Amino acid sequence: MRDTSVTIQDVARAAGVSRQTVSNVLNTPAIVRAETRDRVQQAIDRMGYAPHASARRLRTRRSATIGIHLDPYAGGISGVVLDRFVHALTEHAGERGLRVLVYAASDHDEEIRRMADLVDGGDVDAVVITGTAYGDRRIDWLTQRAVPFVSFGRPWGADDVDDPTYLWVDVDGATGTRAATAHALNRGPRVAFLGWPAGSATGDDRERGWREAMAAAGAPAELRLVAEETVSEARDRVAELLSARAVDAVVCASDTLAVGAHVAAVAGHRPDLAIVGFDNTPAAEALGISSVEQLPELVAAGTLDLLMAGGPRIERRTPTPGEAHVLVEPRLVVR
Amino acid sequence: MRDTSVTIQDVARAAGVSRQTVSNVLNTPAIVRAETRDRVQQAIDRMGYAPHASARRLRTRRSATIGIHLDPYAGGISGVVLDRFVHALTEHAGERGLRVLVYAASDHDEEIRRMADLVDGGDVDAVVITGTAYGDRRIDWLTQRAVPFVSFGRPWGADDVDDPTYLWVDVDGATGTRAATAHALNRGPRVAFLGWPAGSATGDDRERGWREAMAAAGAPAELRLVAEETVSEARDRVAELLSARAVDAVVCASDTLAVGAHVAAVAGHRPDLAIVGFDNTPAAEALGISSVEQLPELVAAGTLDLLMAGGPRIERRTPTPGEAHVLVEPRLVVR
């Protein structure tokens, strides 16, 4: 058992050496004579001395801690995805001897203030940001302050997608919806896509997978629906589609939309309609809806790989192209 | 902008005082002459000196940080409840100047090892534990080590429920199911309860609310079903009930069970069957199922109230009876 009430001075007195010698044994043992080193080490072990973590951090200027923002809880079926990532990051970080500090912020400016406090105070060595947007002020700030960071999410539309100094991990949405569409095509060629209104880079990426899979199968990609991210709007759009057109399947940009499609299919007595969601949430699982699984475990592992670059700790570094990005291939879960 | 490269020595040199004087200005300003204090403060402001957080913590032996274990992500409809609590705790802690450090552990013994590391290292001032069970080893360890802690969950079945040294916050499950049952009785007197197998103190508490509301209404509490926490088992039990007996409503111990009941009602063409869940999860919201909302915001605020006891920081203290527990009254969300 380590005893935090024992000081370095106590150890020095017990071993009959100076405080500086104890410090040398702890930090630069090579410069201490072997017999002195043994005597000090025995005193440390006997007395249960633990260098205080704050002292160790002050000395090394390293906290072995990663900061990550927790969004205010917004509810919704798909809100669980970021939480799964935080769980996985915490687990993987622990295995690599790192800690995770979470902080709340209601917008990007507040998040920057929280990051500034933590970075200035030496509380974190690096941060993870999520939900990146074009012209993201956080990225400017982190780059300017030379704070090591990884983004879960690509710098959509920015010129620096291939800039190796910007480290990011993301899930390959188009690959996910390609797999979803290929599966749905088993039911028939009339596969609709239910996506979000224009302006979502993530949504465009997911739609692209549907278009590519339809083209590969020689099926026309013409049934394209749009709904806000709510169950009721998705339900209404799919109900309208079912009453107007012949449809074999609906591939959706999210599980929220897929649950809406499912409700419309049940109400319209269309148990044969294939529906595929995205995120593999508990709601999709409960209702037996197939869905694309983002594999947050791999996203978390990729985040830490980028931050640590194969080393034992987080370093500021300039990665080479090809080492700066991890694109996780999602997996279709068929139900 | 604070500059972490500026040292206390730099400030001392610029102000023409000793290092100790700068330290006194920061920590015990009352003992420094006013004109010296002003000169030092001007140098601090001009140079953007920030006392390193690790140094401040080493000095105060306080981390202003709370630790909380994150369960491995288990999936499931109701898994979101603890995440909502962590979100709310992070938000409320930030408002009170505290930080939240999360750690993974696969069982109570590992959680104790993680807590020991953090406590020994001065990384946390207090911890929050969740998912308490009878004979919980974590509670013994925390009590023995005199680590301030609050438990989200009562010490079910233990003798120390009323021991004011054991701080806990919990949600009053029986009050929630009483409200759910009173609402369901509007549909008719035959209100069933769908709960978990015996041995769950939380489940017994929720069942008690149903029994009490039925007794208050003079309705016989005889339709008592049991299912494991899965949608499919709940669906099968409710389907059996609907084919065998006349039922007006089903009050459920969780939203997972309520989703199963909902699926059985849809399949059995019983849109009139009232169903009430517990936890107000996104799945219940998506399917339009009424549910009891645990109000994690109030649980988080209660946790911090107990840890801080009205003061500006976390202190080890012996609370008086009546100050050691917070029982949050949940709210029925009718859909």
List the domain count of chain A as a whole number: 3
The H/E string of chain A reads: HHHHEHEHEHEEHEHEHEHEHEHEE
CATH architecture label of the largest domain in chain A: 3-Layer(aba) Sandwich
Low-confidence stretches of chain A: none
> Which two chains touch over the largest interface?
A-B, 55 and 53 residues
Tell me, rounded to a whole number, the average pLDDT of chain A.
Answer: 87
Query: How far do the termini of chain A sit from each other?
Result: 51 Å
CATH C-level class of the largest domain in chain A is Alpha Beta
Task: Provide a descriptive summary of the structure in words.
The structure is a homodimer of 335-residue chains. With 335 residues, chain A is of the alpha/beta class. Chain A folds into 3 domains: 8-60, lambda repressor-like DNA-binding domains (434 Repressor (Amino-terminal Domain), Orthogonal Bundle); 65-171 and 296-329, Rossmann fold, CATH 3.40.50; 174-293, Response regulator (Rossmann fold, 3-Layer(aba) Sandwich). Chain A has helices at 8-15, 19-27, 34-47, 53-60, 80-95, 108-120, 137-144, 173-184, 201-217, 231-244, 255-267, 282-287, 296-308, and strands spanning 65-70, 99-104, 126-130, 149-152, 167-171, 191-195, 224-226, 249-252, 274-278, 290-293, 325-328, 331-333. A 6-stranded parallel beta sheet of chain A has the order 2-1-3-4-5-11, with helices on both faces. The first copy, chain A, has a 6-stranded mixed beta sheet with strand order 7-6-8-9-10-12, sandwiched between helices. In chain A, helix 8 (173-184) packs parallel to helix 9. The longest helix of chain A is centred in the middle third of the chain and has 17 residues, at 201-217. The first copy, chain A, is elongated, with a radius of gyration of 26 Å. Chain A starts with 7 loop residues before the first helix and ends with a strand. At the A-B interface, helix 4, helix 5, strand 2, helix 6 and helix 11 of A face helix 4, helix 5, strand 2, helix 11 and helix 12 of B.
